């Protein structure tokens, strides 16, 4: 091609970098998700927090400052609910370790692992009301469990009537009914784990506890963090059905949890402002405990 022909071809126009459309494209794509979060989620939360500073009854709609929160701190039932939250936090590692260990065995393909996957997940599809009704019969003082214990020479246990035992029974039922979801999450986490690390641990003669501690736990740090937080949220916000069906907050209010307390104040006592204050307290508890768990797990996992 001659020089004259080359000069006859008009030069290509360069596309301007960072055009306005390109800069706003991510915002347009994020807009629906942001609206969904801000609209149905954050806005009602803000309204609930604002409502918690108003009064009930004769003072309905009147600003009362922190009176509702002071009332909560003086209510023995709410203090019992807070104590039970502390108990749930202490039992949380057990609730996470159970699906974690089972997922480890399934990943190692123990005999019958395909069947176990379906069996372990099945309780997660049951309604809490159905689960509560079933275990109310099983854990009754004259129920099948105590009949078996009696055959073993162990005295009957008042699982749902003893204030010192009932909350542990409900937590145990909740863990049984929900660990299938955490199991699926752990199995998904194992799919991202480098198989060569497990092979190297086997070649080096590492025992199963050593493999779990030095290979699996560091490799699944993110997954463990996610399961810890979601399990805690489930314990604090998804046990209402079990408490309502199995004990109705009893005996002696020993199985009260914040969400059940909120329902009592709103649905039976007709104190929506006090219920809003309890809901706000529950939100703050979940936020603080969740952030603390993430910080501890990051430090344990050796993350920056």
TrEMBL record:
Its membrane topology: Multi-pass membrane protein
InterPro entries referenced in this protein's UniProt entry, alphabetically: ABC_transporter_permease, MetI-like, MetI-like_sf
Keyword Transmembrane helix listed: yes
Keywords: Cell membrane, Membrane, Sugar transport, Transmembrane, Transmembrane helix, Transport
SUPFAM superfamilies (UniProt xref): MetI-like (SSF161098)
Database matches in Pfam families: BPD_transp_1
Keyword Lyase: no
Single GO cellular component term: plasma membrane
Compartments where located: Cell membrane
Transmembrane feature ranges: 21-43, 85-108, 120-141, 165-188, 226-247, 273-297
ABC transmembrane type-1 domain sequence ranges: 77-293
Entries under Gene3D superfamilies matching the protein: MetI-like (1.10.3720.10)
PROSITE patterns listed in its UniProt record: ABC_TM1
GO biological process, one term: transmembrane transport
Family from the record: Belongs to the binding-protein-dependent transport system permease family.
Name assigned to this protein: Multiple sugar transport system permease protein
């Amino acid at each position: 091609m001659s020089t004259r022909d080359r000069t006859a071809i008009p030069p290509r126009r360069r596309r301007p970098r960072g055009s306005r459309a390109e800069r706003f494209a991510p915002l347009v794509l994020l807009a629906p998700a942001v609206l969904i979060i801000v609209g149905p989620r954050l806005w009602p939360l803000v309204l609930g927090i604002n409502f918690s500073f108003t009064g009930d009854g004769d003072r309905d709609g009147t600003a009362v400052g922190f009176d509702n929160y002071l009332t909560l701190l003086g209510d023995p039932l709410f203090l019992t609910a807070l104590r039970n939250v502390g108990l749930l936090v202490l039992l949380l590692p057990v609730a996470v370790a159970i699906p974690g260990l089972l997922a480890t065995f399934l990943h190692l393909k123990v005999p019958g692992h395909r069947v176990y996957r379906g069996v372990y997940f099945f309780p997660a599809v049951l309604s809490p009301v159905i689960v509560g009704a079933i275990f109310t019969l099983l854990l009754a003082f004259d129920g099948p469990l105590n009949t078996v214990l009696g055959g073993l020479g162990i005295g009957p246990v008042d699982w749902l009537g003893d204030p010192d035992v009932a909350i542990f029974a409900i937590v145990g039922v909740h863990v049984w009914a929900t660990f299938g979801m955490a199991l699926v999450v752990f199995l998904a986490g194992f799919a991202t784990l480098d198989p060569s690390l497990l092979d190297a641990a086997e070649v080096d003669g590492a025992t199963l506890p050593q493999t779990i501690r030095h290979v699996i736990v560091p490799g699944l740090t993110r997954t463990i963090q996610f399961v810890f937080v979601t399990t805690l949220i489930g314990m604090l916000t998804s046990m209402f059905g079990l408490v309502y069906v199995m004990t109705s907050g009893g005996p002696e209010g020993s199985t009260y949890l914040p969400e059940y307390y909120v329902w009592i104040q709103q649905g039976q006592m007709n104190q929506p402002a006090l219920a809003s204050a309890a809901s706000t307290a529950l939100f703050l508890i979940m936020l603080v405990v969740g952030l603390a768990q993430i910080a501890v797990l990051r430090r344990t996992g050796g993350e920056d």
